[in-house]
């Protein structure tokens, strides 16, 4: 019988810990430090705006994402403000992937019975780390790895319990972990529904109200803990606790009454949703802004279906606790997949599903005769890794300081205007706290779209008596933004642009003058107080 990863086998538990740390660390060294679009747009700006009292001073410099909960990004922001090296910051951003991988290996140990070996651990760790979602977001500020760690933590809490006991405390804790993670990053909500699927899939239906109630109470408590303050703040500022999202429900006048969600990848029908795993077998942008290919979701769907079928066939002789755990995990996987497809279809948000799909593959390898297990694990591992096309969201070599931005000296009564679809808000963190940053054209603000935020921006620009500057980058999108600023607001670049010292891209501050132009939006009787 192969050496199992049980509570009496410390060496293999140590292997799980070693793999959970070593493989993500090796991947980080190969990838370099993060330079993705979201980092430049809001992961640095949002905590800065919150901690420096800019929520009423600025208007949407980080575009739609200007109001994301900043709590999870505070450590990253603090490290960058302290000038920490790129590798150290990258190491912090890799910790959640280390935790998610370690928990995945522990879940494998619980479900693999006596078949969890060093070979299986290494193969699972390699397949999981090299996924199109896992590898791409490792060491980045996307926070999808934090979601994976929270979700895997919830599942581990449930799966390590004796299913026959079905204790409410475990469901309460699992719900609290998932709810708290959802408060930090709202995309976790689909996995909260997945936990409900796990509760329903448990064999003891009589206990369903009890575990469902505990899960719900824990989820609400965890969400309130991490999102309650921020949601209350957004409610008082904008009349929408999720502003600007779900504004088709809350009808805040500060934005248009739409969902403000990225629906480019959402399937249009049930047939479209069922085809997602097959379409992911081809390199493309169907479910990502950058090309990828990954067979793992298809492997997961097929794998959990076959595992359930096999468990049902052997139910009479099967271990009841193991059978219940399989059902719970499969219920979570399938409900989460449906919720994820309906909510976004964005592949990197499916990271927990990708990890669990790798687990299903390794569990199916248990069916091989013992003498073929090691060969099968190695061959399957190589095939899956080679078949994967991983996207790159932007990386650079490790630098002595993760972020460096230094603005030219500005008069204290200055105003900085942003008119660009490019991510420029990271530079706002280098402005003096009394210099406002006003966006007039981006993925939320549009000239002539007379929301209260647009009216406030127009009013602030028209009434500003001090110098004004245009913050822009070096690409063609910023040329277009500069032209729209002139055409719609009468803001004309009136001199040489000063370079902004930065290690994150080409930035310039251009002096502006105001030319006469028509009023875009009629000022209401009570002018906005921003």
In short:
This protein is of the alpha+beta class. It contains 20 helices and 9 strands.
What are the SSEs and their pairings?
Elements lengths: L9 H22 L1 E2 L2 H7 L1 H7 L22 H8 L4 H26 L6 H12 L4 H4 L6 H16 L8 H17 L4 H13 L6 H31 L8 H4 L19 H5 L1 H4 L16 H18 L6 H24 L7 H14 L5 H18 L7 E2 L8 E2 L8 E5 L16 E6 L10 H12 L4 E5 L3 H14 L1 E3 L4 E5 L4 E8 L16
Parallel strand pairs: 4-5, 4-6
Antiparallel strand pairs: 1-2, 3-8, 6-9, 7-9, 8-9
Helix pairs in contact: 1-5, 1-6, 5-8, 5-17, 6-17, 6-18, 8-9, 9-10, 9-11, 10-11, 10-16, 15-16, 15-17
Distance between the termini: 70 Å
Tell the overall outline: elongated
Number of helices: 20
The chain-level structural class is: alpha+beta
Helix share bin:
40-55%
Keywords:
52% helix; two-stranded antiparallel ribbon; 530 residues; seven-stranded mixed beta sheet; 9 strands; 20 helices; elongated; 7% strand; alpha+beta; disordered N terminus
What can you tell me about this protein's structure?
With 530 residues, the chain is of the alpha+beta class. Among the domains are: 146-387, no CATH class; 405-514, no CATH class. The protein contains 20 helices and nine strands. It has helices at residues 10-31, 37-43, 45-51, 74-81, 86-111, 118-129, 134-137, 144-159, 168-184, 189-201, 208-238, 247-250, 270-274, 276-279, 296-313, 320-343, 351-364, 370-387, 452-463, 476-489, and strands spanning 33-34, 395-396, 405-406, 415-419, 436-441, 468-472, 491-493, 498-502, 507-514. Strands 3, 4, 5, 6, 7, 8 and 9 form a seven-stranded mixed β-sheet that branches. A two-stranded antiparallel sheet has the order 1-2. A hairpin with a 4-residue loop joins β8 and β9. The longest helix is centred in the middle third of the chain and has 31 residues, at 208-238. It is elongated. Residues 1-8 have low confidence and may be disordered.
């Amino acid at each position: 019988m192969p050496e199992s990863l049980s509570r009496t086998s410390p060496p293999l538990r140590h292997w799980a810990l070693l793999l959970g740390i070593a493989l993500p660390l090796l991947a980080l060294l190969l990838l370099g430090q993060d330079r993705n679009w979201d980092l430049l747009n809001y992961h640095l700006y949002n905590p800065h705006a919150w901690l420096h009292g800019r929520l009423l001073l600025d208007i949407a410099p980080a575009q739609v994402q200007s109001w994301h909960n900043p709590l999870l990004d505070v450590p990253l922001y603090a490290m960058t403000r302290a000038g920490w090296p790129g590798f150290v910051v990258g190491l912090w951003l890799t910790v959640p992937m280390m935790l998610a991988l370690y928990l995945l290996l522990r879940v494998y140990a619980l479900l693999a019975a006596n078949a969890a070996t060093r070979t299986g651990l290494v193969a699972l760790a390699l397949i999981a780390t090299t996924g199109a979602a896992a590898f791409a977001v490792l060491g980045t500020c996307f926070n999808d790895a934090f979601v994976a760690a929270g979700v895997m933590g919830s599942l581990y809490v449930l799966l390590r319990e004796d299913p026959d006991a079905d204790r409410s405390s475990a469901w309460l804790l699992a719900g609290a972990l998932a709810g708290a993670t959802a408060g930090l990053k709202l995309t976790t909500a689909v996995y909260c529904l997945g936990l409900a699927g796990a509760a329903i899939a448990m064999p003891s239906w009589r206990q369903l109200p009890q575990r469902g109630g505990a899960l719900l109470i824990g989820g609400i408590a965890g969400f309130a803990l991490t999102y309650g303050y921020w949601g209350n703040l957004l409610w008082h500022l904008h009349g929408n606790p999720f502003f600007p999202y779900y504004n088709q429900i809350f009808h805040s006048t500060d934005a248009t009454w739409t969902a403000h969600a990225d629906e480019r990848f959402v399937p249009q029908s049930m047939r479209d949703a069922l085809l997602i795993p097959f379409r992911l077998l081809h390199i493309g942008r169907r479910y990502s802004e950058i090309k990828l290919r990954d067979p793992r979701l298809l492997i997961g769907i097929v794998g959990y279906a076959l595992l359930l079928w096999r468990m049902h066939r052997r139910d009479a002789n099967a271990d009841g606790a193991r059978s219940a755990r399989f059902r719970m995990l499969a219920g979570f996987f399938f409900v989460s997949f449906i919720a994820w497809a309906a909510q976004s279809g964005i592949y990197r948000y499916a990271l927990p599903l990708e990890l669990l799909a790798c687990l299903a593959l390794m569990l199916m390898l248990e069916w091989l005769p013992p003498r073929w297990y090691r060969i099968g694990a190695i061959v399957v591992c190589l095939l899956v890794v080679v078949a994967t096309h991983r996207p790159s969201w932007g990386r650079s070599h490790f630098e002595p300081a993760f972020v460096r931005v230094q603005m030219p000296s500005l008069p204290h009564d200055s105003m900085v205007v942003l008119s660009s679809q490019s991510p420029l808000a990271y530079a706002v963190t280098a402005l003096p706290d009394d210099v406002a940053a006003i966006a007039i054209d981006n993925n939320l603000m549009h000239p002539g779209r007379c929301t209260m935020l647009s009216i406030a921006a127009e009013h602030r620009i028209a009434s500003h008596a001090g110098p004004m500057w245009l913050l822009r980058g070096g690409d063609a999108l910023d040329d277009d933004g500069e032209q729209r600023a002139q055409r719609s607001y009468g803001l004309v670049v009136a001199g040489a642009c000063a370079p902004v010292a930065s290690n994150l891209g080409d930035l310039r501050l251009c002096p502006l003058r105001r030319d006469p132009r028509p009023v875009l939006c009629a000022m209401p009787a009570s002018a906005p107080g921003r």
